[in-house]
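Technical appendix A lists one of the benchmark inputs used to test multi-chain prediction within the project. The record comprises two sequence entries:
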Amino acid sequence: MKGLCCRWSFSLGFMVGACSFYFFLYNVWFERSYPMLSEAQEKAITEKKRPTNRKEEGAALLNLLHPQHADEDNRVADELYRKVRILCWVMTGPYNLQSKARHVKATWSRHCNMVVFMSSVKDPDFPTVGLGTKEGRDQLYWKTIRAFHYVYEHHADEADWFLKADDDTYVVVDNLRWFLSNYTPELPIYFGKRFKPYAKQGYMSGGAGYVLSKEALKRFVEGFRIKVCTHTTPIEDLALGQCLEKMGVLAGDSRDTLHRETFHPFVPEHHLTGKFSKSLWYWNYCYYPIVEGPQCCSDLAVSFHQVKPDLMYTLEYYTYHLRAYGYRPRYQPSLRHGLGISTLPPSAVT
Amino acid sequence: MTEEDHHHHHHVKAPSKEELRSLSDTEMQKLSKQIEVYCVIMVQPKLLTHWAAALDTWSKHCDKSGVYTSENSKAFDAIDLNEKDNWTRLRKALKHAFDNAGDLRWFFVAQPTTFAIIENLKYLLLTKDPSEPFYLGKLMKSGELEYVAYDGGIVLSYEALKRLVHVFEDKDKCPEHVGALWRLNEDKQLAMCLKYTGVFAENGEDIHGKGVFNSQSIYTLIKDSMNNNPTNVLEGCCSDMAVTFNGMSPNQMQVMMFGVYRLRPFGHDFHDVLAFYPPEGSDND
């Protein structure tokens, strides 16, 4: 009886001690930190239904309103939107719609006047055009030929310039408009990241995106009609470049006023911080001298390539959202040809 | 503002358009001078590449910088406080910054793994009076203690730092050497010391109430938003006027430099009330 009593006291004492120690540790050691809610989070912003600025016209998405912020003065961008109409077509495929094309649809393609997603198979929901080809690298030029023919047949009058991009290309369409405002769509000309081999005037890298004037598009389609152009090779960018050269379309210089590249075949990090190994093919391909470091890339960059979905959103954030208040960048180019916009009054205090 | 008000007021927001419009030219001039920032950068040789990145990127936009190191490094000049303990070193750095502040009235404390946009910090602080005690950043709560997260960057007004330096003298309220068992992280220690002087931590926010101090990288925040708000990724993510991000690699910091100061869409203008110009001898901004 006495033994049981002792054991019971011991157990009780042990329990009390253990609990006290745990309580002590809980308050001193185990305390977790968590962030306080910001005012925006406290208000628990209910998800507002996004106003539909897009209209579907067959498989094409028309962007009716140029995306903008409430506290921005977008007069110049809006004027360019009206005067330099760009149709973007995005090379994709049925297996990439949810993993890649969806993010293009949610980000930069909203800034095109019109966007068409090109796939081998028609998808009425996304929506995509069905080009009637198979999928695979060997189909790339077939898809390109048919995509440009489709765009010419259905939308030739609705745009001035026709951009091709991949579903892993990020494009700053507003900067493309600035650059193209120096040219007219009646010129037989096209722009992109210029490569030099295999074609006298060079050709434009497919992944970095390239843009054809209306006249260039007309000549591309005409080339196939008169059989000057045929499916020569699946290497889409080279084949297109060779066809356009035969049809008298000029390969343009897309660099900015400081001779910095605007179309880029790799991601920003690679161009800004990477060193290209001297044995790399890139050195032999680039039409213009390669610049490594911060001057690789124009402030008014037009495209980057090999962009994964999370980087798409990050680039959209960097381009259209994040900024330094009041900062006046070093590079201050103007519109070289006036678009008939009246001189804006000096900045008023907002 | 009474201490009572401060205790319940958790959010410090950027000035609204109305607030800015109501300022006269002379007031604006005075405020522009007043918002100069002294950056207190706490480096260590083991973070050498981040140290180099901080020197080559965002810290060029501080009005004055004090780089305080835990030990000497041949690579870069820094103020060697000869102090291995993190909390003691932070105290020494803050005291040094206070003594050398000159006319500067705002102090921004960061580690080199943080990237800061000083212009956006100035915009946040524009209409705030540094002779009032301000202690702000990314607000965290641990038990009863509210503190500002170190890795999101800590902002102190002149008055807050003055009170802090004064309470450093008090060995009971704000001891320099803390036993291992009771040791808290430096940011919590700081909050406790400031609390004794009547200064409380606040969350820095933009005009929409979105936090502008981030203790994570932009990549992490975007990925989280892609999971949580797949149809509204950017609206559900970060402020346009963010001040800090943390945990990016040196290369990613160079990309952010390009993204903040250079990459932009042509034809989108802002009529900001302040103008900041690029620093001399720099080519990545």
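Chain B touches chain A through 75 residues (CB under 8 Å). The radius of gyration of chain B is 19 Å. Comparable benchmark entries are summarised in Table A2.
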